[in-house]
Amino acid sequence: MKDMLGWIAGAASDKKIRRHAIQTANKYAKKVKPLVQTIQAVAGTYGTPEMAENMKNMAGEAKKLAAEAMQFVPSMQVIGASFADSAKIFGYFSSIATAAGIATNVVQVYQGIQVLRLIDARLKDMASSLAAQTALIAQKDFPQYVHDMIRERVMQTSRDPIYEHWFFVYHPDNDWYPGFYHILESEPVGPEFCGYTKQIDTAFVFMLAARRRIRERERRAQEEGRPIRPTRLHLLIPAYQPILILEALQIPEEIGDFVMEGRINSNREFVWLNLPEEQRHYVQDIGQFVPPSQGFFDVLMSVIGLADIPPKLGERRVLGARQGFIEGSDEDQNVANEYNEKEDAQRIQDRHRDTPLEIQHRRQHSTRPRDRERGRHRRSESISTR
Fold it and tell me: At 245, is the secondary structure helix, strand, or coil?
């Protein structure tokens, strides 16, 4: 590599040779870079030996979830040399994931006959032959299907003159990973395909980290007077059998320009989510699951045997945030403050662009616990002086 760099420097007087040398160096660098790297979110860093102890500390008071939390390390399979292959994004991902405490989240995902049972409680038996068939599809055919889906969407958006597109993949299983990796070795998709994971909260936290980095690039380009295309994030959810997430979820507004994409089979969506109606513009070819009343739902879940303790409905949670968040609790207040302190530096840089009226509006309507406390304190001082 040193000889190659010396050759580049020596060829500086010849533009044609220099251009060829740089192309050769880039090609060499891509070969050295790993095809896929696992990025794990751990407090203060990512992918370190202290992971197990950090995860134990993050579990905290989550008694029933302690065992699951010890097994759940937020991890993303990031494609080498992709748009998201960035040390800054990895750092943001780690800090957001650990501050939000998503390692304690246990998202119940139902697949296949389980989903059909929820839609039609009269289906009481699951054929063992179908179970064997779906397992075979997952290992043999599904990796190629995932690759085809990604490649199709990347090619369809490659000539977009307005937007740059970044693609991510979520699927609750990982037994298709080896076959998919093997396909990527011979058929890379391109830098637009950024990574994949089996943890939906991890996917959203990583995309939030990517969005933060994208906004930094956009601000720099604006300051330097350079044109830059806005970026649209895509979360693809391929499936070989129906997928349903019962938990009432909400897409974070901070994710910006974003779309979550599924697929249709036999005129029916394969992926079903419980999202608010006003966020349907975020999804494409994904079904809207509207659960029945809690009482009826508890009975139904018990009859078809899908859960020992039926999940509680109606408590909507923002994806990428911790489950069981209770506004005003001391523990969650500390988590929120820790995350907000990391955001303050950027907020201060941006705040000089705001007018006094905008600042007053933000303080009055802020959802941050610390900002609300400041607002109440200022209002009480104003009243006392009258």
Answer: strand
